[in-house]
Amino acid sequence: MLNGRSSKPWRKTGPVVLLALLAIFAGARAQAIREDGSYSCTLCHSKIKAQFLDDIHFKRGITCDRCHGGDPGAFEMEGAKAPSTRYRGKLSKAEGVRLCASCHSDEEMMRQYGLSTDQYQQFAVSEHGRMLLGEGNADVAACVDCHGVHLILPPSDPSSQVFRKNLPYTCAKCHSDEAYMAPYGTPTNQLDDYLQSVHGTELIEKNNRAVPECARCHGVHGASAPGTTEVYNVCGQCHPFIREQFMKSPHFEAEKEGLIEGCVACHGSHRIVRADSELFVKSCQECHARDSQAFRAGTEMKDLIDGAWRRYAEGRTELDRAMNDGLIIVDEELMLEEAHTLLINLRTVQHTIDVRVVEGEVAKAKSIVNGVITTL
Fold first, then answer.
1. Tens of pLDDT along 329-342?
2. Which UniProt keywords are given for this protein, alphabetically ordered (predicted)?
3. CA–CA distance from 254 to each of 247, 266, 296, 325 (Å)?
4. Do 297 and 204 share a structural domain?
5. How many domains is the chain built from?
């Protein structure tokens, strides 16, 4: 008590102030919703409202009536959904695609956001688009299946369904469902394979966003499986130097004739593991008899490459020994690094499937290593 009065008058006035603040906040929020034209919609659709307030479209001023029609200023259902308001309600999947395209194909509208406007054209020629728009199959994926409905987030948002790390799981909602995919005869082990692949491990476990996920290989809105003669170009987007060497190989000729699927023939598709020299034996025998000239060539390249790496390891051992002995080995260190670079480059050159080319690169690397060992 102070002069006969409580020293904590807020105990009496606090609740009143709090209620007043809440009323002001609620009034401001309601006023904002009235101003953006969606208030009457949210009287009934409160759950959707909770999602839509975080949607990228709402944040850009797009409100319910832009997609669904109706009169958001009318507070009676008869008026809000009157025929004169062009109320559309729930759209079919095909209608939804065309509705999205009505804005996203508008170059003038999209220019300010830096977005491309060819999504609809790409979707129309995709596997999904042809089945939906051409055959009327509403079971296939369309805009809302991948991006969401009332909570659409930018692809850069980690919570977005199409954020790079989330995309494999978004595709898997359909493509890992055996019953759902049964009518199409499509495998459902892609996600499991991808998560065990070098690409999946790098993306999901190491957060390396430079590696491909589903859309990088299959396309985004124009998603389709790469054709037999397209695989090397798809892989070549990330591996251009390997593609260049592959185009010099007999395998390239076989791919052009549709006999093999290029890179996939040796490395697989979704479960691509980090390759080593054992792949020469494992993959070559899939197509070539063990007593064939082609198989022998693969074995010879494997032996050449393994031998070069062993010689490099010997050079490294000698260099480390000299360093421990206190010798100055700057030049030798640079020479051995040059040999290592040549061996790394062999991983690209070997895609020529040319023993003579591989033999030449191996000879260069071993010559440098031999020089280092002799010097030490």
1. 899 999 999 999 99
2. Signal
3. 11, 13, 19, 54
4. no
5. 3
